[in-house]
Design a protein that fits this description.
Distance between the termini: 36 Å
CATH topology: Rossmann fold
CATH architecture: 3-Layer(aba) Sandwich
CATH superfamily: NAD(P)-binding Rossmann-like Domain
CATH class: Alpha Beta
Number of strands: 13
Oligomer: single chain
């Protein structure tokens, strides 16, 4: 199987590329800038290239599946719209113009749901009410993929919850915490975070990558939107305490830093992953301790 991975140099895209290669798939990475070590890399900018050029790339590569891991998680509203809405539009239109039989797997976000009733796992049937611009733009991207599906594309959206693991970026709490803990160990100081009074569903990025491979390989087209999470809501304060123990850092954590808008307005998340089990025959395999331990080891190795 040949798959084209858009955004292959990003956190999730890199894990998808690595897991697909290990599974014996032929991977064609693509994105806005070409890494020096990849002769197969194809340059494409979903936000700036016209759909005809995107269609030509898809036709030239002739993949069995296209995985879209591009997008932005923070920034000004126009930047979020360009990455998450314009990019999805360019890809969907390009795929329609190409007339490709390739399956499109687009990466969505749990932020599309917005605030929900606590202690009730979130199903795909919940009416999305995103709380901030990130969730709004990701939901718009999902809607564009659904329109493409209605027009004949074999397409599905994997709505990922809170990915964690080696390479996690500083835009999320685990990645930021890894950086802060390294600094604190070096100077024996304190760490300042925002409020930890919220619950999140953390999924290992490698388990997420496995779900992508299951989606591209499924013999029957999966349903339009599928939650990808661990199926467990974990208090974030517990995660911080666990990460402190793994790192061996004895620093003090203060909860007096500014919170992000997304965190303040969404106090609780937990995925219902029944659909992922049914459509993809997929289950998360790595526990949170493994994810945090491997994230810490990777962050140390990159110093």
């Amino acid at each position: 199987m040949r798959i084209m991975v858009l955004g292959a140099s990003g956190f999730l895209g890199a894990h998808v590329q690595r897991q697909a290669s290990a599974a014996g798939m032929e991977v064609v990475p693509a994105g806005r800038s070409s890494p020096a070590d990849s002769a197969r890399y194809r340059r494409i900018d979903l936000t700036g290239d016209d759909p005809a050029r995107i269609a030509k790339l898809i036709t030239d590569v002739a993949p069995d599946a296209v995985v879209n891991c591009t997008g932005a998680t923070d920034g000004a509203p126009d930047a979020l719209a360009a990455a998450n809405v314009n990019g999805a539009y360019g890809l969907v239109m390009g795929a329609l113009l190409a007339g490709t039989p390739a399956r499109l797997v687009h990466i969505g976000s749990a932020a599309e749901y917005g605030p929900v009733q606590p202690n009730v796992p979130m199903t795909e049937q919940i009416a999305p009410r995103p709380a901030g611009m990130y969730g709004v733009t990701k939901l718009a991207g999902t809607r564009l993929v659904e329109l493409g599906r209605a027009a004949g594309l074999d397409a599905t959206v994997l709505r990922v919850f809170n990915p964690v693991g080696p390479g996690a970026p500083q835009t999320g709490l685990p990645g930021r915490l890894a950086v802060e803990l390294r600094r604190a160990r070096g100077r024996g100081s304190e760490i300042r975070l925002g409020s930890l009074d919220f619950v999140r569903d953390f999924i290992d990025a490698r388990d997420f990558a496995d779900s992508v491979l299951a989606a591209v390989s499924a013999p029957v087209s999966p349903r339009p939107v599928i939650n990808i999470g661990s199926g467990r809501g974990v208090p974030v304060r517990t995660i911080v305490k666990q990460f402190l123990a793994i790192s061996g850092c004895g620093c003090t954590v203060h909860e007096d830093a500014a919170d992000s808008g997304r965190t303040a307005e969404i106090p609780w998340q937990q995925a219902d992953i029944t659909r992922a089990r049914e459509d993809l025959a997929w289950e998360p395999r790595r526990d949170l301790t493994t994810s945090l331990t491997d994230l810490w080891a990777a962050s140390q190795a990159s110093c």
